[in-house]
Amino acid sequence: MSERRASLIAGLGLGGFVLAFSFAGRFLYRADPYTIHPAHALQAPDWAFPLGTDELGRDGLALLLAGGQATLEVALPAAVLAFVTGLAYGLLAGLGPGWLDKILMRLLDVFLALPSLVLLIFFAALARNGLSNTMLVLLLGFITWPGLARLVRNEVFAQRRRDFILAAQQAGAGPFYLARVHLLRVIAPVLVVNGTFLVGDTIFALSALSFLGLGVQPPQVSWGSLLQSALDIIALAPWWLLLPPGLLVFASLLAASLLGRGVGRGVLRR
Description:
It is a single chain. By secondary structure, the chain is mainly alpha-helical. It has a single domain (3-269), classed as MetI-like fold (Orthogonal Bundle). The protein is built from ten helices and no strands. The protein has helices spanning 3-28, 60-95, 98-113, 116-126, 133-144, 146-159, 163-170, 175-211, 223-232, 239-269. Helix 1 (3-28) crosses helix 2 (60-95) and helix 8 (175-211) runs parallel beside helix 9 (223-232). The protein is elongated. The model has no long low-confidence stretch (mean pLDDT 85).
């Protein structure tokens, strides 16, 4: 089996597991994640609580499932928003007149020069009552699109002088037609690769925000907030609260990386 195929299979399998665990798991394991069992606080994994309980006595597995759903319900739409924004911006810069390209690229340089995580923390901290999930989607999407926009613009510039593009322009094709019919088909593999990386970026950014208490707000939990809660009581050695959310964040990032690597090798071979 080729390395590319192995990366694709591993990425699809790992990503499918994370999605199934987060969205289908709650239908199979119906315990309420927010029910408190005071007599079972910080109980190690057993038959009654497969992943133990937290310091309040809440079911660890139910919390992990709820955290996965909350994390992906924010991270995935944010990645889609970042992808659409970056694609539209890059196409506009690449197909527009020279003066528009210069303006858009200077603005993009400003966005790229700003540290993303610091910006996320700054805007999240401005919300006194915390950010809603919708606001988190908008914030994450707003922060993570510039890299894709630059890539799309450069790809469009590399393609716009090819013979079939020039022929289409001479036949009267406008920028929208060129983008829809020709350019998107040519750069589609590159878009797929970077789209997978965007998913990993948004999951990591949301987990970092939640870890700092600025992401998904209580009573909801996310993988980042579960990690933060576990570290607060790390002296009590609750390994069953620390390892599962950390492993799922790692698995999500690894799945995105493997998918991007597999698709990327296919692009290079072409």
